[in-house]
Backbone:
C-alpha cells in the first residue's frame, strides 16, 4: 500500500506540474492568460464559511494568502487525484502503466471543475457564463489530457 500511495503522490505532482508547464507554453505560444490561482484560493477560503457559490468570485471578499492557498489547492487536488487513481488502478497497472486508463481518469476529473469550481466562482456550469464557453471547455480537456500524460510519464519512470 505504501508503494502505491507514494506512486500516487508522485503521479499527482507530476501531472499537476505538467499542466503548469502546458499553461506556460500556451502563454508563450498564443498569449493564453495563466490560470488565476488567487481566485481559486479566494473561493476555497470561503468554503469553511459555508459559501460555495458566488455570483462573481472577483467581487467576493478577499481572504488572507489567497494566492498561496490557490496554489496549495491546485497541487493538493492534483495529488489527491494521483492517489485516487493509483489506488483504483492498483499495483498491476503501476508495474506496467498504459495511457488509456490514466487518460480517461484525467478527463473525468474535469467534472469537479465544470460542476463545482466554475459555478462556485460564478462562471456557470462548465463555463456557461463566460464569453466563449466551448473554447474554455476544449482548453480544459486539453489541460486534463496533459495532466494524464504527466501522471503516466511519472508512472512509467517509477515502473
Residues:
Amino acid at each position: 500500500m505504501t508503494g502505491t500511495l507514494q506512486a500516487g503522490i508522485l503521479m499527482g505532482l507530476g501531472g499537476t506540474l505538467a499542466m503548469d508547464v502546458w499553461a506556460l507554453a500556451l502563454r508563450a505560444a498564443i498569449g493564453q492568460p495563466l490560470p488565476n490561482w488567487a481566485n481559486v484560493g479566494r473561493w476555497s477560503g470561503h468554503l469553511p464559511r459555508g459559501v460555495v457559490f458566488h455570483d462573481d468570485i472577483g467581487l467576493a471578499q478577499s481572504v488572507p494568502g489567497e494566492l498561496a492557498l490557490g496554489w496549495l489547492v491546485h497541487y493538493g487536488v492534483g495529488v489527491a487525484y494521483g492517489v485516487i487513481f493509483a489506488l483504483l488502478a492498483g499495483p498491476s497497472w503501476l508495474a506496467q502503466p498504459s495511457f488509456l486508463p490514466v487518460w480517461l481518469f484525467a478527463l473525468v476529473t474535469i467534472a469537479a471543475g465544470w460542476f463545482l469550481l466554475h459555478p462556485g466562482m460564478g462562471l456557470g456550469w462548465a463555463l456557461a457564463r463566460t464569453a466563449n464557453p466551448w473554447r474554455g471547455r476544449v482548453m480544459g480537456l486539453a489541460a486534463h489530457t496533459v495532466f494524464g500524460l504527466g501522471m503516466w510519464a511519472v508512472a512509467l519512470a517509477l515502473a
